[in-house]
Design goal:
The longest helix has 14 residues, at about 175-185. The chain has about 300 residues and is of the alpha/beta class. It has helices at about 25-30, 100-105, 135-140, 155-165, 175-185, 190-195, 205-220, 235-250, 265-270, 285-290, 295-305; strands spanning about 60-70, 75-85, 90, 115-125, 125-130, 145, 225-230, 255-260, 270-275, 280-285. The strands form two sheets. Strands 6-7-8-3-9-10 form a six-stranded mixed β-sheet, with helices on both faces. Strands 2-1-4-5 form a four-stranded antiparallel β-sheet, with helices on one face. It starts with about 25 loop residues before the first helix and ends in a 5-residue tail after the last helix. The chain has a single domain (about 55-305), classed as Rossmann fold (3-Layer(aba) Sandwich). Helix 4 packs across helix 5 (about 175-185), helix 4 (about 155-165) runs parallel beside helix 7 and helix 5 packs across helix 7.
Length: about 300
Amino acid sequence: MTMNNTLEPTRTIEKESQVPLQSDKNQDQSMQQQQPKISIGSFDQQKTSGKSVDQAKEVKISAQDVHVYYGEAEAIKGIDIDVYQNEVIAFIGPSGCGKSTFLRTLNRMNDTIDSCRVTGKVLLDQQDIYDPNLDVVLLRAQVGMVFQKPNPFPKSIFDNVAYGPKLHGLARNKYDLEEIVENSLRKAGLWEEVKERLNQPGTGLSGGQQQRLCIARTIAISPEVILMDEPCSALDPIATAKVEELISELSNQYTIAIVTHSMQQAARVSHRTAYFHLGDLIEVNSTEKVFTQPDHELTEAYITGRFG
């Protein structure tokens, strides 16, 4: 089945003046074509802008002079960074450095915090996601999010995955819906484990299975980007390994940004790594370079365990 990535508003979305995000990505082609790993251009040796000089890479998300404030406190201090199509980029840094706050700016999750204010631009496919006329519901369909703690709905396994496609009108009939659910569970590496109990509660699964169910729920509405905020922090090592393997597979079809406190995990799953410190983006580079020859002394101090 072929689905159009530009989601049409359903009757539950009423603001006719809102402008849906446009995308020319063809899902079927993206599923069939394998993307090469990212090769990185040169970056500033001090606090980096995160902007590559390699013009051949397709930029999926571009953050430009992004500041985030909680009341009068500045949590993010003028960050510039590009995220490329079909890459996995890891955000690392000590607690309170701003990495999760910045991740949440990429699909406007900070909008739910009354005291939070964002300035600057965040472009998705060259469209400003902070445009006041943009439909945030449709944005979050295209930029999905997987949270730190698995949060399945109090519904059956099937209905957890089917909820989004139903809401956005992606299934024309029951057969289409069943196909979307099965394909999403297969992509999440969960189908073989749950195919005989789709009507059982999603909350009855193990922690690792619940997290993969949440990933299946996210990809069921055909997002362009998946944001992951410490998705393995509550999981055991075996479940973590399964999710990490899944991340590598999903990067062939999706752009993924992941926040992690585990530097080993960042090294295993990401093409590039960005290091945050006290609201600043200190360095962004290929993951291999960040962990073997970092440009900035703060990065080296963090990855060698001198603080953090």
